[in-house]
């Protein structure tokens, strides 16, 4: 039976939307492979609990973002919500590379907020975009893309110097800035 919808249009929109899911996985995971390097080389005098808090604030922000996403979606719509999430994600990513613990803590919370927005926006947008006959396959995209983001973050993390072997390395900033590409491509498309 021939499809009754434009497959290229539907799948390209869903894949672009799912870049938010890649960001979801990436943003939640990116701090794990670099946290030891940051603790030892960027903020050696900072208590380890603050580094842990930098990682932990992202899921806290995600919970709040997911909770507030429904109201945001109703007020400004799907596309505008995606653009807002991408804009905030780019701002929070840039803030995260500023070598100030307080700024990083705020940035990691804001990153989580964007993750929470994406956790609600992407599945809803995809569900509304996909025709009934494509929902089976498109419903798997969100989770697949989240896992892809986690994988990319950890693969890039393999390049992080260990211990204090290269304290001047800026690799950790490069890894964090990688998420800007996801948000910029999705916003532009």
Could you give the topology of this structure?
Elements: H1 7-17, H2 19-29, H3 31-42, H4 48-76, H5 78-96, H6 101-129, H7 135-138, H8 141-157, H9 171-188
Helix pairs in contact: 1-6, 2-6, 2-8, 2-9, 3-4, 4-5, 4-6, 5-6, 5-9
In short:
With 189 residues, the chain is mostly helical. The chain has nine helices and no strands.
Characterization of this structure:
This protein has helices at 7-17, 19-29, 31-42, 48-76, 78-96, 101-129, 135-138, 141-157, 171-188. Helix 2 (19-29) runs antiparallel to helix 6 (101-129), helix 3 packs across helix 4 and helix 4 runs parallel beside helix 6 (101-129). The chain has 189 residues and is mostly helical. The model has no long low-confidence stretch (mean pLDDT 93).
> What is the alpha-carbon Rg in Å?
18 Å
> What's the mean pLDDT score?
93
Q: Report, as a whole number of angstroms, the end-to-end distance.
A: 31 Å
**Structural class, judged by helices and strands?**
mainly alpha
SSE series? HHHHHHHHH
Helix content: over 70%
**Count of helical regions:** 9
Proportion of residues in extended strands: under 5%
The low-confidence runs, each spanning 5 or more residues with pLDDT under 50, are none
Largest β-sheet summary: none
Q: Given the C-alpha coordinates, what overall shape results? A: elongated
């Amino acid at each position: 039976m021939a499809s009754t919808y434009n497959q290229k249009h539907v799948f390209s929109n869903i894949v672009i939307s799912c870049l938010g899911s890649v960001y979801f996985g990436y943003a939640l995971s990116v701090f794990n492979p670099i946290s030891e390097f940051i603790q030892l080389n960027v903020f050696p005098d900072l208590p380890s609990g603050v580094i842990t808090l930098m990682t932990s604030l992202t899921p806290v922000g995600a919970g709040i973002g997911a909770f507030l996403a429904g109201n945001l979606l109703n007020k400004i719509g799907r596309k505008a919500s995606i653009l807002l999430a991408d804009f905030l994600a780019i701002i929070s990513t840039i803030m995260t590379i500023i070598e100030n613990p307080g700024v990083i803590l705020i940035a990691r919370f804001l990153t989580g907020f964007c993750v929470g927005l994406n956790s609600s926006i992407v599945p809803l947008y995809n569900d509304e975009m996909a025709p009934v006959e494509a929902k089976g396959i498109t419903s798997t995209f969100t989770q697949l893309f989240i896992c892809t983001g986690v994988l990319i973050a950890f693969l890039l993390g393999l390049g992080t110097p260990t211990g204090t072997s290269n304290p001047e390395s800026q690799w950790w900033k490069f890894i964090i800035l990688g998420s800007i590409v996801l948000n910029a491509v999705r916003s532009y498309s």
